TrEMBL record:
Lineage top rank: taxon: Bacteria
GO molecular function: nuclease activity
Gene3D superfamilies, per the entry: Bifunctional nuclease domain
Database matches in SUPFAM superfamilies: Hypothetical protein TM0160
Name this protein carries in UniProt: Bifunctional nuclease family protein
The BFN domain, residue ranges: 2-133
PANTHER family per record: VON HIPPEL-LINDAU DISEASE TUMOR SUPPRESSOR, VON HIPPEL-LINDAU PROTEIN
InterPro entries xref list: BFN_sf (IPR036104), Bi_nuclease_dom (IPR003729)
Length: 161
């Protein structure tokens, strides 16, 4: 089963300074942090803030390419978490047919914002994401997870990229 989620914010991991995209369950309180690269975080932040750039960025190009091929992005799905790496799929529709394309979640999220399409996370990913795989980092990861789960709307507005 897939759970619909929204991007609730972008922040920086306080221990590693890596960008994190915060996804939140539309129907509940489930929060899923996904660590992303700096460039992808920037692409997401630009679209979240509705900032314009003088020339199309890579994800703008992807959106324009999809539209130019008379296709639409129907949804994106974070499908798997394997070896601490998230996987995603773009669902496109072209000429009445569905096409799936493997992609990185960060790229899928940046494109989903531009295409104004829903974001889903497979229920199994949410279940696996709560498991801490490295016992040496358990305290740090557990603290970060609790911190992320306890963020409120005001907190999400305070942390900028």
């Amino acid at each position: 089963m897939e759970i619909e989620m929204k991007i609730r914010g972008l922040m920086v991991d306080p221990s590693t300074n890596a960008p994190i995209v915060i996804l939140k369950d539309v129907q509940g309180d489930t929060v899923l942090p996904i660590w992303v690269g700096l460039y992808e975080a920037n692409a997401i932040a630009l679209e979240v803030e509705k900032a314009t750039t003088p020339r199309p960025m890579t994800h703008d190009l992807l959106k324009n390419l999809v539209q130019g091929l008379n296709a639409t992005v129907q949804r994106v799905v974070v499908t798997e978490l394997k070896n601490d790496t998230f996987y995603a799929v773009l669902w496109l529709e072209q000429d009445g047919e569905s096409v799936t394309i493997d992609c990185r979640p960060s790229d899928a999220l940046a494109l989903a914002l531009r295409a104004d399409c829903p974001i889903f996370v497979d229920e199994d990913v949410l279940r696996v994401a709560k498991v801490i795989s490295n016992p040496t980092d358990q305290a740090t990861q557990e603290e970060l997870r609790r911190w992320l789960e306890n963020l409120n709307d005001e907190d999400l507005g305070r942390y900028k990229m």
